[in-house]
Structures are given as C-alpha cells and as structure tokens.
Specification:
Structural class of chain B: alpha+beta
Oligomer: heterodimer
Number of helices of chain A: 9
Number of strands of chain B: 14
Order of helices and strands of chain B: HHHEEEHHEHEHHHHEHEEEEHHEEEE
Helix content of chain A: 55-70%
Largest sheet of chain B: 8 strands, antiparallel
Largest sheet of chain A: none
Shape of chain A: globular
Strand order of the largest sheet of chain B: 7-8-9-10-14-13-12-11
Helix content of chain B: 25-40%
Distance between the termini of chain B: 26 Å
Distance between the termini of chain A: 18 Å
C-alpha cells in the first residue's frame, strides 16, 4: 500500500526526516552548552519513542507522562556525562527505562491494573484509526512485559535488535525471539478481530 | 504484516503522546530561580540595645560568669574527650566505621559487615590515636588479602559538620593510606568523600542492599551522574570496580576525590580484549583505521566495550573483562556507491560519499545524510520527481535474492524474518531481515534500482 501525505509545517518535515534516523550529535553538543532550543529540538524528535517506551513499562498514561517530563530533565542534568557514541537514542531510552523502573517500585505494593482503554479514544485524533488503537490495546493487555517493551521499542525508536538488547539487558537472540513471538501473537489476535 | 503493526503503533503514539515541553522548560526555570536544595538562608538578628548596669547587677553577673565558667570547663572536658567529633568509614570489601573525638582519639570501632569482623579480629583500638589505628587497620587488610595489587581501591568517607575539618581529614588520611600501601609495594587508589549521614533515601538503600551508608552514598553519586547504571547492579560491586567505573566517566563527580588509579589488573586489559576482538573479526591490526575502548558494567558484569573501524566497516564488541568471553558483537559495512554499480537516482538526489575524514564516529549511513541535507530545504520531494508507482518496483522476491546474493547465501540457508516495502521521504526501499544460526542479517534494498543501500549482520 502506498501512502501519500502532505506535510503542513516545517517542523513536521524535519521531524519526519529524522523519524527513524540518527539524532544529530550536534544537538547533544548544544544541550551540553545549555542551549534550551536544542533540548526542545531533541524533545520533538524523540518524545514519541520516550513516551511509548515509558508507557510500555508503566501501562499508565499519567505515569508515562511524568517519566516523559523527567527524562528530559535528566538529559539536561546529565548532558555533560553523555559520551558521543552515535547512539544518543540508546542513551536516552536507558534513562527512560531506569526512571520507569524506579517509578514501578513506588507502586510495588499496589497492583497496577491496565486502567486505560486505548481503543476508546476521542474521534478527533487524526493520525491513527480505531484499528490502530486496537493494536495498541492488544499490545498492552495481551503481551508479556518484555514482549511489549521490545515491540514498542522496535516500532517507535528505530533501534536495532542489538541496541534494544543492550537497553533491556537481554541477549540479542532472546530479544529476537521475543520480538517474533510478540508479533505472531498480535497478528493472530488482529486476524481474529477482523 | 509486521510492518503494518508497527506502523499502527507509530500512528497511535503520534496521537496520544502529550506535549510536555512547556512543563520541562518551567521546571528548568524554577530550578534556576530558587536556591539549590539544602541551602538555607541565614537570618542574623541584631540584638536590641544593652541594658543599663547597676552594681547589684554587676555582682550577679560576676557570680554568673564564674558558675558558667565552671560548667563550661566541665562541659569542655566532656566535649574534648567523649563527644563524637568525626565519623570515618572505610570501605574496601570490608566496611568499618570509626568514631573519633576532638583530639583524634578513637571512641569506637564498628564492623559493618562480615569481612570487617575478620579485619578487626580482637583489635582493641579504643582511645588509640587515629593515625595509629589507621595503620593497624590497613595492615590487617593487607595481611588478610583485602588490599592487593589487583584490588587496590579503598573508600574513605568522613562525616563531620565542619566541612573544613572533614576536608582536612580526608586529605590527611588519603596521604597516610597511600603511603602505607606503597610501603607494601601496592600502587593504591584512595577515593574520599564527605557525607552528612542524614539522608533517609540513602539510609534505606543501604539497608536494602546490606552495604554501609558511605558505600551507598558513593554508589548513589555515581548512578546519578551516569543514568545508564542502576543502583542495584553497582551496589554489589567491590569498591575497586566502582572506582573503575567512576574513572570511566567523562566528568568528575562532585564531592568525590580519587587519588591514584583503580587497579584493572584483575581484568584482562584493553589490549588483550582488543586482540580478542580483532581475531574474531578476522581483521589485522594494520587494517584498523581507528579504535576506542572503555570499561563498563553491562549484562551483570564488568565488560570492555571495544569499537574499531576498517576502511569499509565498523565493528563493535562487548567482552567480559574477567574471562575474555565475547558477549556481543556487531558489524556494519558502509556501502557507498554500492555493489550494483549504479548510483541511485530516485527521490532525494544522488548518494555520494559525505566525509572522508577518519573520525571514528562519523555517520553510520551516508545515504541518510544526503536525505537530511535535501530535507533541510524543507521540500518534501526534492528534485521535483514524481512518486514511482508500484509497477516500477523490483518486487519483494527480487529484493530478497539481491540481499541473499550479497550475503553469499541461498534461501534454504536462512530464515527470513522480515521483508517489507518501506517509504522514507519519497524513496522506497525493501527492508529485509533474515537469520542463519546465531547471525542476524539486515538489508535495505532500493525498491527501484535494486541497489544494496545498507547491509549489516550481528552475531550473538
């Protein structure tokens, strides 16, 4: 299926160009020098990946939003210790993971049920269809923890399996097999839904 | 099919990701405007006018002074001898806490873990001079093998409300211990920090992990400066490894001074690790155009992260620092004007070499760079080309054949895990992934020309 879409404003054009490619090391450098515009640029390039990953761990939109905010504060605070590696996304998402895991511990004694219904969002959202949201709903409710995080990381962040493995602290082969299994599960459910 | 699911997810998050940039900027503003945590503003009060004095008043006053002096003297005596002036912690593996009074005599010695009990073994250090006690403790650690050439790091933590005194103690003890160690032919590394001992978070972390407050303080400082490390992993490492990790950080850590170099002699060394990587890759030292190595903590152990480049590929290795086992490896070839001999001429312009510098961290994919340059003009389809129709694509099967041929494999050799047409700002590519045993291959094939845009494989 071929998809055409027009891009309304400049920022979106830049965003889509960078959607799955490497983030400019220069942006990281400018953040080190306390350039807030650079932080803003980085934010808009990466917010979806960070939010999605946090949500895949926390399963709660408010908590994920808190972590979204905290991640960029932490990036700002720790920019000096970022070592130019060509993989800023991996560094950023490791921060997101650590913050999310810490937040999970706060709720350790409380069971956090899946309290969101993603397939019942307001109709005004334009980019995704109801079917898309059903995919997310299923991902959140039927996949195992690791499977969900891996699928979402792979879908949103543009990271390779090996890089995902590093962030998740799993062997690459494990990530590969969990990924395949997760996709199979989702495909099966979607076929049944249709 | 896989791609459709992922595209669905992308679209949903496009909708539901909240924009918190304003909140972030607000937080940054708030931090800059209010004082840092822990600082209190000091208000001095000016005492009101003096009272007039009468003779009786003066007499009363004199008696008062005499009594006060007596009390003060008595109190001072107590203060000199029995009040805890400083608390000093030593952490290596053993964890020992000393309290000293103002004259620097030992008031108490406490073993905080089992290793420390071995060290203290019937030593009575009460009322001994601090310097003498330190001598005895270090001697015992050396004798019992806790401080050796391979594990030469010790953490000194000083708690004293007087910051200047704490700093002075730190410096002095660092010097003393360094010379004690070199007298035993050990090139020691002494890390020192001062702390308040009152942080509840640190207290509970220390209890949770069965480590001393001072070690928890050190770990928490390291973890806050390097968000890729987490507290649980680092807390169980000996001070020597923590020292290595601190040294690997690009910036120093506030409140911690490290003297000397942490011993990495217990590990195989970056040179050996590098050799292991080269041998695995089948590359000779002469072919290497740039390299980098670093010690880090991953997969639950200390590893060397080795990266090197040759003329047309980049290699990444993670090697167990203790055993030399290869934990992970990655290989990426740079295809510039690619194997099929044809430069690309659809969407986005020609694919050319960007930089010729040997900068180790040059862009991974020169082709993407060209795309970005074109997009800087903010035109969606640069060059004004019309989007190709499906019939001008080579097809998924042909793309797969091209990828397999490039890898030198046949379809029966591999398991294909992904073969999808992807669109990236006007240009269309096939993203192909297949595995053979432990090795995963990834290819990007131009959908119109069949050129191999990107090829890589990773072993596990």
């Amino acid at each position: 299926m071929i998809i055409f879409y027009t891009i309304a404003d400049e920022q979106a054009a830049v965003r889509s160009a960078l959607s799955r490619t490497e983030i400019d090391e220069a942006v990281m450098e400018r953040i080190k020098q306390r350039d807030r515009d650079a932080l803003s640029t980085l934010y808009y390039e990466t917010q979806k990946s960070v939010f999605a990953f946090a949500l895949s761990i926390l399963k709660n939109r408010q908590n994920a939003e808190d972590i979204l905010h905290d991640t960029y504060i932490k990036i700002w605070d720790n920019a000096a210790s970022y070592k130019a590696s060509g993989k800023p996304m991996a560094w950023i998402l490791t921060i997101t993971r650590n913050l999310s895991l810490m937040k999970l511990r706060e709720h350790r004694n409380r069971d956090v049920p899946l309290d969101e219904q993603f397939d019942e969002l307001a109709a005004e959202n334009t980019a995704s269809t109801r079917l898309d949201r059903i995919v997310l709903q299923n991902a959140m409710s039927t996949l195992a923890e690791d499977e969900r995080q891996i699928v979402i990381l792979h879908a949103l962040s543009g990271l390779k399996h090996r890089e995902i493995a590093q962030i998740m602290e799993l062997p690459t082969s494990t990530v590969l097999s969990k990924y395949r299994r997760a996709l199979k599960k989702l495909e099966k459910i979607l076929e049944e839904e249709n | 099919m896989a791609n459709n699911i992922e595209k669905s997810l992308e679209r949903v998050f496009e909708d539901i990701t909240p924009d918190v940039m304003d909140k972030i900027l607000l937080t940054l503003d708030e931090r800059e405007n209010s004082p840092a945590l822990g600082e209190k503003s000091v208000i001095t009060e000016v005492t009101p006018a003096r009272k007039k004095r009468t003779a009786a008043h003066i007499r009363r006053w004199t008696v008062g002074i005499a009594a006060a002096l007596l009390l003060a003297f008595g109190g001072y005596f107590t203060y000199l001898n029995f009040a805890v002036e400083s608390t000093i912690n030593f952490d290596v593996n053993p964890s020992i806490q000393l309290t000293v009074n103002r004259s620097e005599k030992i008031l108490s010695v406490t073993a905080l873990n089992a290793d420390a009990e071995i060290i203290l073994d019937n030593m009575d250090l009460k009322n001994v001079d601090l310097d003498v006690a330190v001598n005895a403790l270090i001697g015992s650690m050396l004798k019992n093998g806790y401080l050796t050439e391979i594990a030469n790091s010790i953490l000194i933590s000083v708690e004293n409300n007087d910051a200047a005194k704490a700093a002075e103690l730190q410096t002095r003890l660092t010097e003393e211990i360094s010379s004690l160690l070199s007298a035993s032919a050990i090139d020691g590394s002494v890390i020192s920090q001062s702390y308040t001992g009152k942080d509840e978070t640190i207290k509970s972390l220390a209890e949770e992990h069965s480590i001393s407050y001072s070690k928890a303080e050190l770990v928490s400082k390291l973890v806050s400066i390097d968000p890729t490390l987490n507290f649980d992993e680092v807390a169980s490492l000996p001070v020597n490894d923590i020292n290595l990790l601190i040294a690997a950080e690009k910036t120093g850590i506030d409140g911690i001074t490290a003297d000397g170099k942490a011993s990495s002699a217990g590990y195989i060394g970056t040179d050996t690790a590098f050799d292991i990587a080269l041998r695995h890759a089948g590359v000779t030292a002469a072919q290497v155009t740039g390299k980098k190595s670093e010690i880090d903590y991953e997969h639950g152990r200390m590893v060397y992260e080795i990266e090197f480049r040759t003329a047309n590929a980049e290699y990444d290795y993670e090697i167990d620092a203790l055993t030399g086992e290869i934990l992970d490896s990655d290989f990426e070839s740079f295809t510039k004007n690619n194997g099929s001999g044809q430069p690309n001429n659809n969407g986005g312009g020609k694919y050319t070499d960007d930089d010729d510098d040997d900068d180790l961290y040059d862009d991974y994919d020169d082709q993407d760079d060209d795309q970005d340059d074109d997009d800087d003009d903010h035109s969606h389809n640069s060059g004004g080309h019309t989007a190709p129709t499906a019939s001008s694509f080579i097809g998924a099967d042909a793309a797969l054949s091209i990828a397999l041929r490039h890898a030198g494999l046949s379809q029966s050799d591999v398991t294909v895990t992904d073969n999808d047409l992807d669109e990236d700002d006007g240009s269309y590519i096939y993203e192909i992934e297949f595995t053979r045993g432990e090795r995963e291959y990834e290819y990007e094939i131009d959908a119109v020309t069949g050129a191999v845009l990107k090829s890589e494989y990773e072993d596990d």
